[in-house]
Amino acid sequence: MQQQGGWIQRLLRALKGQGGTLSGLLWAVGLLSLPALAFGADIAPAATTEYRDIPYIGSRNLVWVVAQLHLLLAGFVLGVPIFAWVCEVVAWKTGEKRYDKLAKEFTKLLTSAYATTALFGGILLFLLISFYPKLMNYLTDIFFPSFIVYCLLFLVETATLYLYWYGWDAMQDGGKKKFHIFLGFLLNFFAFFIMIVPNSWATFQASPVVLAEGSDLARAWAATWNPTWWPVNIHRLIANVVLGGYICGAYAGIRYLSARNAEERDHYDWMGYVGNFIGVFGLLPLPFAGYWLMREVYQYNQQMGITLMGGFLSWLFILQAMLIGVLFLGSNYYFWLGITYRIPGSELKYRKSMLSMLIILLLCLGVWMTPHSLVASLEEARKMGGTHHPLLGVFGVMSAKMTVSNLMILVTFMSFIMYWRAGKEETAGWAKAAKAVMNSLLVLAGIAVVVLGVWGYFVPAIVRINYFSTSQVLIVLFVMLTITPLTALLLKSAKTTTEMVWGKMPPRAGYALVLNAIMVILLMTLMGYARSSSRVHWHVYGVLRDSSQYAFSPALGYAAAIMALNTFVFSMIIAFIFWVATMSDKAKAPHS
Amino acid sequence: MGGSLLKPVILIGIVYTILKFVVPNIPGSAPLPASLIFLYLMLTTSGIVIFATLSGESKDAFWGPIQRFLTGENIGSLQVLRYGVLLLFPLIVGWQTYHSTATSDAPPAENRTIHPAPPGEYTGLSNPVAKTPDTIQQGKGFYAAFCSPCHGGKFDGKGPAARGFNPPPANFSDPTTIAMLQESYLFWRIKKGGVGLPIEGMPWKSAMPRWEVELPDEWIWKIIMGEYDGAHQSPRTWE
Questions:
Q1: What is the pLDDT of residues A425-459, one digit of tens each?
Q2: Is CB count within 10 Å lower at the N or C end of chain B?
Q3: Burial A409-425 (b: 16+ CB within 10 A, else e)
Q4: Does a structural domain hold residue A15?
Q5: What is the pLDDT of residue A189?
Q6: Residues A186 and A74 in one domain
């Protein structure tokens, strides 16, 4: 209050010489506020409101839906600029105009979605302030400095996006293009910070670091740099690329299905391929990031770790396995369809390889989806001697899950390599040796991953987590980092035997792209629920308890219904945004 | 109707036979619950559909007969069968829906959380007893006296009293049980027993006694060391 008094006095002193206008204004304000004083005189000081609710829907449900929609939109808006910019750089470096057109198309989708994201962010903020004043007071008290930083970041990001989008055509040549590319870099630079600043608020709620003393800045910084902040930052960064890639793929799939002429079919077939490629590119390292995050959660708090991985939320990870499995199958299916339809004559050559890959993927998925505790009737459980199967129960723990996820990543990577090599004949003298090396590397890597996985059952958990799982990841990364440049080198001198034909994919390829996007959206809604529910009855874990009527974890079936609702609403919003954004394109397109 | 449809049907039949009749007869195995068999069959079916639709020819060979049969296009004498299928299919769906929603006297499927999250006050605990050959030996002695009747002298969950319990006592030599947990978790479970399971651990099916009324904390910590050593497992740690 003293501070406020001083501020008013300073203001009055400053206004002293301003004459009658300002005095009149102050008088007017005073008169207008008299009725408020009259009301206020009769009212006793109100007790602090901790929670507010909304009838029928419930405050928690509303915040859940709006927060998830905001997060999904934000994931798309922050993921798309990454590959839009990469496409623009590729176009600039190689001179291939189609990449520039693609980058522009991605950015058009981004620009349309940006305002909606901000709108949902605003709605979420109002809802949080209204429904959870106690929590928001607490968070504001800690994160006040980063709130300001966030506002500033939003301003510069918006300005950069406007310049990037509206300046696209005007900045096409020479130095202007370089400046435009620099703008794209800035867009991503600011976007990264726009992502990690709110991540600090959310991760603080799960793994808080609270300083009892210190300046505002010191407290905010300590709270920001909490144990799960960076694992979530990395995980979300990759997941945003995956989400953006698959959604752009789905957009291309729908545009392909509704294409009116051969040019459109060619373009959207190619765009679908790029979208799927970006999605897969992000999908490959995503399980590693997820594993790191879960490890940090477990290490931070055993209770939270067990709630997620062994407790009532552990079923979510079986659902997650199913969704990721469908995503892997869908992505590979799209690659295989590409080999069959875009490279005529390749189907017979690669059909056996596709079958082998499919069998490995299905076997891996079978292991990944096998729960540790099975759903069994009383009779079945009695026959098994509990809900844990004596033989297949070993598939239910992390050693098995890590092994099969690594194998699925390897197979998907090889699908891509196969697609890349299809329709080409290597002419280099060392091609045979290179192929032998690559095949040996792949087989040895697969064996090593399985051996480490099996061995993982016989060593202490910390050895498995710190050394074996890490080694599995490094082996897979090594294979990818070795085979990719080797293949590129091999194909540099290769002879094209069959030209790639665009626009010939069957309709099911377009549907596969849409399916992948839906899977990734469902996955994000699922993990959003897992992250939030792992705090159980705490707003800020172990620090600020949830004392509202909603201080309980919703049942999994109920949660699944809300996740499905979020997925549906988000898909509708995105479909609407894309429809609006491309309305003029469709009007311009000639019929075939 | 073509061989393209026959192969998938045979494949699904083989997978079902293996899961239903072969796996349970492997030594040390047990029958699989219907939920898991269903899951694996769904995967097999997905694989068949994916592979069959990879090219236009294979898709036509696979889907063509189904489509012709369902639309009744040139199927001759199979028309009666078609009407039968078209009539039977909604009836099966209706029957299935009825069975999944109708009240029944059968107990519901178990969805038991074997490892519910421990209360916060137990999560930060570490074993206060120094790990020496003597303390481990003492722990094994306490284990033999209090735990082995159920969990077995070989730490394999096959003690003389084990047969009386459903679910059976935990098998500590299985690398998917205590090796996944920290010592503090075992301390909580031994101290509080089955009656101390949280809501998350419903339907609270555990005959584990509440040992805190009989044993001092120090003995419990020693038992934990003895269990890990005897079962040749190590507790989950972060160092």
A1: 888 888 899 999 999 999 999 999 999 999 999 88
A2: C
A3: bbbbbbbbbbbbbbbbe
A4: no
A5: 96
A6: yes
SS (H, E, C) A449-487: HHHHHHHHHHCCHHHHHHHHHHHHHHHHHHHHHHHHHHH
CA distance B119 to chain A (A): 7
Minimum mean pLDDT range among A187-196, A449-458, B195-204: B195-204
Is the domain of A351 the same as that of A338? Answer: no
Model confidence at A412, in pLDDT bands (50, 70, 90)?
Answer: very high
* Beta-carbon separation of A311 and B115 below 8 A: yes
Residue that terminates a domain, selected from A478, A497, A516: A497
Checking if the pLDDT of A357 tops 80, the result is yes
Contact B167 A389 (CB under 8 A): no
Instruction: Look at residue A408 and tell me whether its pLDDT is greater than 50.
Output: yes
Taking residue A73's Cβ as centre, other Cβ atoms within 10 Å add up to: 23
Tell which of A447, A477, A497 closes a domain.
A497
Q: Alpha-carbon torsion B159, B164, B169, B173, what sign? A: positive
Q: Which residue in chain A is spatially nearest to B164 when comparing CA positions?
A: A385
Residues in chain B: 239
SS3 track for A272-312: HHHHHHHHHHHHCCHHHHHHHHHHHHHHHCHHHHHHHHCCC
Residues 6+ apart with CB under 8 A from A410: A442, A445, A446, A449, A476, A479
What's at B20, amino acid-wise?
K
Tell whether A327 and A352 lie within a shared domain.
Answer: no
Write down the pLDDT at residue B118. Answer: 87
Residue B35 has pLDDT above 70, yes or no: yes
Judge whether A4 lies within some domain: no
More confident residue, B109 or A502: A502
Residue A483 lies in a domain: yes
What domains can you pick out in chain B, each with its CATH number?
Answer: 3-95 (no CATH), 120-230 (1.10.760.10)
pLDDT in tens, A457-485: 988 888 888 899 999 999 999 999 999 99
ipTM of the complex: 0.84
Residues A294 and A399 in one domain: no
User: Do A482 and A522 lie in a common domain?
Assistant: no
Task: List pLDDT tens digits, range A372-385.
Answer: 888 888 788 888 87
Q: Assess whether A354 and A326 both reside in one domain.
A: no
Nearest chain B residue to A335, by CA: B54
Rounded distance, CA A121 to CA A73, Å? 10
Q: What are phi and psi of A167, to 5 degrees?
A: -95, 5
A298 closest CA partner among A311, A284, A315: A311
The answer to whether position A484 is within a domain reads: yes
DSSP string, A521-582: HHHHHHHHHHHHHTTTTEEETTTEE--STT-SPPPHHHHHHHHHHHHHHHHHHHHHHHHHHT
Q: Is the pLDDT of residue A124 over 90?
A: yes
Domain of residue A70: give its range.
51-343+501-592
Chain B (79-118) residues lying within 8 Å, Cβ to Cβ, of chain A: 106-107, 109-118
B237 contacts A386? CB cut-off 8 A: no
The pLDDT tens digits of the residues spanning A17-43 come to 454 554 554 455 555 554 444 444 455
**Is A386 in the same domain as A350?**
yes
How far, in Å, are A377, A503, B212 from residue B108 at the CA level? Answer: 6, 52, 33
Looking at residues A79-106, what average pLDDT do you find? Answer: 91
In this structure, the answer to whether residues A330 and A463 fall within a common structural domain is: no
The helix (run of H) or strand (run of E) holding residue B67 is: helix B56-71
- Smallest CA–CA distance, residue B64 to chain A, in Å, is 16
pTM (predicted TM-score): 0.86
Work out how many domains chain A is built from and give that number.
2
Residues B142 and A401 sit within 8 Å (Cβ to Cβ): no
User: Taking Cα atoms as reference points, which of A322, A323, A239 lies closest to residue A281?
Assistant: A239
The pLDDT assigned to A24 comes to 53
